[in-house]
Amino acid sequence: MGAMARPTKQLRRARIWLDVSIIGIQFPVAIALGYFFGRWLDGMFKTAPWLTIIFALFGIAAGFVNLFRITAQAGRAEERLNALEATEEGKNGADPDPS
C-alpha cells in the first residue's frame, strides 16, 4: 500500500501546482479581454477612450479576483492534503514528527 500511496500524494501535489500555474495565463487574458471589449464598445459608441479604460480596469479587477480565488483554493487543498497525510501516517504507526 505504501508504494501506491506515494504516487497518489505526488499527483495531488502536482495538481495543486498545476492549478496555481494557471494564474500566469488567466491574469493577462482577463486584462486583454477587458481592454479589447472596451475598445470595441468605444468604436461602436464613439466614446473613446472611456469604455476602453473602464473595461481594462474591470479586466484588472477580474484578474485579481481570479488570483485571490485560485491561491485561496490552492491553500485549502494543501491543508486538506497535509491533514490527509498526517492521518495516513497516524494509521500506519509512523511518527508524525520525525524531527
Q: Approximately how much beta-strand content do the residues carry?
A: under 5%
Number of strands: 0
Name the helicity range.
Answer: over 70%
Shape: rod-shaped
Unreliable parts: none
Question: Structural class of the helix and strand makeup?
Answer: mainly alpha
Number of helices: 3
What is the CA-based Rg, rounded?
A: 22 Å
Overall mean confidence score, pLDDT: 86
Distance between the termini: 24 Å
Return the string of H and E elements: HHH
Question: What layout of secondary structure does this protein have?
Answer:
Layout: H1 2-21, H2 23-45, H3 50-91
Helix pairs in contact: 1-3, 2-3
Protein described:
The chain is mainly α and 99 residues long. It has a domain of 66 residues. Helices cover 86% and strands 0% of the residues. It has three helices and no strands. The longest helix has 42 residues. The protein is rod-shaped. The mean pLDDT is 86.
Question: What's a quick, concise take on this entry?
Answer:
The chain is mainly alpha-helical and 99 residues long. Helix content is 86%, strand content 0%.
Task: Spell out the key features of this protein.
99 residues, mainly alpha, 3 helices
